[in-house]
Prior knowledge:
Layout (H helix, E strand, L loop, with lengths): L2 H30 L13 H11 L5 H17 L4 H18 L4 H15 L4 H13 L3 H14 L7 H10 L3 H14 L3 H14 L2 H14 L3 H17 L3 H14 L4 H13 L3 H14 L3 H13 L3 H20 L5 H11 L2 H14 L3 H13 L3 H12 L10 H13 L3 H14 L7 H12 L12
Amino acid sequence: xxxxxxxxxxxxxxxLLASAAGAAVLGGVLVTLPWGGQAPPPAPTPQERxxxxxxxxxxxxxxxxxxxxxxxxxxxxxHPRDARAWAELGAARVEQGSRxxxxxxxxxxxxxxxxALAVRKDNVPAxxxxxxxANARRDHAxxxxxxxAARKLEPGRWTTYPPLIEASxxxxxxxEAGRLLEKLTELRSGPEVMVRAAAVYRDRGWREDxxxxxxxxxxxxxxxxxxxxxxxxxxxxxxxxxxxxxALRHFQEAVRTDPDQRAAQAGQGRALAALGRTTEALSAxxxxxxxHPRPEYALELGELYESLGMRPAxxxxxxxxxxxxxxxxxxxxxxxxxxxxxxxxxxxVEAAVRRLRAEWKRQPSTEVADALGWALHRxxxxxEALPFAVRATEGTKGGGVRSALFAYHRGMIExxxxxxxxxxxxxxxxxxxNPWFSPLHAPRAKEAxxxxxxxxxxxxxxxx
Length: 464
């Protein structure tokens, strides 16, 4: 009789021990689980990711943008007076046009944004998106007007400042860009602000500061598309300073992070060509153009083919450039700067001068000064060309960015004016900044510098 109670007591003790052990294990799991033992929140939907990106001015993936635009279109069929949804739809379409290099999205973006403003005229997100759209179309004066209208309504909204800074830079107003950056940094910190600061620093010639900001931005970025965009900009900066290997690493990492980062794909083509890996460079450019047909990539690839003596292949891509520029113009975009640059080197020089004179009146930026100066030189107007080249290369005159191409242009203009000392200095500077800055022009810079030779000791100090 005693055996049964003892057996029952043993089973009871084992049950208690098992319960205690189970509680201890469960308690350990609860301690280590995030969210206090509760299930984590659901991952954001594609629409939510795209909306967070476009409302804060950071890149989104094409797939997420397509999901957002489709959702907003469905919503607006039954809620046509939703001003906020119209603004979000317009902003998403602006970003789609930029990510896909397809200006056909922009008239539809403008239609959505104007509808948003018709429903509610003080719609600050719509005004801001109109500024972003104008910058994308390279209409920086309109971008400034839209951005200022948004800032007047809500001066403390930080998202208004990045498109205003871009507009000021595009208009050649570097001082205003600096003031706007100071205000932006008072209102906000984070990767979006770091990237905008890097652009301003780059334009001032502060390369190390710009590189540091981009590194911090890439480290702090949220979604892969955002991080990849910042890595691509870091690659651009490395390329501009002539660091081929570092540029290639940044571009490759950007593509690994976001396979839709076609600007980085084109950047790989640029760096690979400079490294002598020509077959890979041509492949990278073709891949970029297949999915992101920006006219500047067609120009770069055409010039690479021309440098290889493959003129028919180059002409195919020059024709593609003209086609893409025409498409952009038909949808409200301004590609006069790029077209003027192209015509100056590969087409109608007189047309290039006319285009760039008009562009200088509209938007007197450093880039336009350089392009107009070069076009005038190519047209034989060397004396008139020089002040524009000086404007593009002298920090005291607004040309703070250290560009090998700009220095080369100035050196060749000075060479034509028989200012050989100044020409020697600026051609050498171009090759010091980036010895591989162009597959066509870098060899010409080396040849011109070799013809100039070393300065004569008997001649004394060289004049500028």
